[in-house]
């Protein structure tokens, strides 16, 4: 889960920076993408056990 979320966050940060955001904004975008991906994957794992 952490590897997938890390890859998604790096990609989101790079795309955000390429779109013209400054570096701190791109880092915040990557962090938000990481948190969202971890939340989604944890929910999928929880409901897959049911």
The overall average pLDDT, rounded, is 96
In whole angstroms, the N-to-C terminal distance is 19 Å
Coarse shape: elongated
What share of residues are in beta strands? under 5%
Low-confidence stretches: none
Cα radius of gyration in angstroms: 13 Å
Helix content: over 70%
Total DSSP helices: 2
| Number of DSSP E strands | 0
Instruction: Please state the structural category.
Output: mainly alpha
The largest pleated sheet is described as: none
Order of helices and strands: HH
Primary descriptors:
2 helices, single chain, elongated, 50 residues
Describe the structure.
88% of the residues lie in helices and 0% in strands. The chain is mainly α. Helix 1 (2-18) runs antiparallel to helix 2 (23-49). It starts with a helix and ends with a helix.
Explain briefly what this protein structure is:
With 50 residues, the protein is mainly α.
How are the SSEs placed, and which strands pair?
Blueprint: H1 2-18, H2 23-49
Helix pairs in contact: 1-2
